[in-house]
Amino acid sequence: MAVWSPAPRRIAVFRALNLGDFLCAVPALRALRRAAPRARITLIGLESIRPCIGRFGRYVDELVDFPGDPGFPEQAARLSALPDFYREMRARHFDLALQMHGSGTRSNAIVQALGALQWAGFVPDRLRRTPLLMAWPDRQPEVMRYLALLEYLGLPAGEDARLEFPVDAEDHAQADDLAVRTGFDPARTVFMHPGARLASRRWPPARFAAVGRRLAGQGWRIAVTGSRAERPLTAEVVAGIGRQALDLGGMTELGTLASLLGRAPLLICNDTGISHVAAAVRARSVVIASGSDVGRWAPLDTARHTVLHADMPCRPCAHDRCPVLGHPCATRVDAEQVLRAAQIQLAKEGGHA
Length: 353
Hints:
The protein has about 350 residues and is α/β, with parallel strands linked by helices.
């Protein structure tokens, strides 16, 4: 039985993180909606996820842009906007505010300041736990943490940890149009996504190119994807692969890319948001994890997703640029390892170039 009564009608969920982090919270949002079908659920998050938030209207009624905090690296804080933000949030009279943004070291103060009738979430210290505050489960995968929080609060979250990324008819149509215009068959194409928000999370472009050349030599078409800002990076990888590769840098909206990945035999990428999109559309992947906390962020389905990483004492790392000479967490994963993992996943898929 839930620890609050009556059932909350207005719920705020604080998770001011980027796309991959949001997707990892979708199973918990799905469970929350199932437990509170009549509540209005407001996600307090980053403006950067607004382009995809409409896909999750079954679980979230609205997104409110969080102006940021100096302690959070995801965006520059707009400090002048914070007083109006808190004033507006308090005026909404939330019945419940859920802290789903980490251990609570900094985020709990933000959630308390929303002025909800009750608030719940994680605390970093086991001695401070209460019926509404769960001790931070440091060693659990990210997806499972927030399901565990709901269970702790008495909501039947269950074990449905599936990620979601709904793809609609327009996404499929745009993907089909791109494939026709650029002349490739998604079902016979290995996708590579060499970008990541942090430079320290990027496997070297030359190694992506080396793997791409080998796979192209085995008959696979290679498509390299990225945002408009990543066009120099995608062009570098494509140039290293050769004329067998296709540069789709800046040419795919997120829904279009999700549609393509859902039909492709394999994605090779860094440990970043696109790896969670791939998991959500049931695409196979090989993920190179440079600096991230693999136990926390790796996809749960280890049969469909191979995560390669080098154990380093400095993991996990939040630096934009690696402070260690040689970027060893990335360079200790070599091209042969990634190629072998790719070939194993392609064999599971039953694909032939």
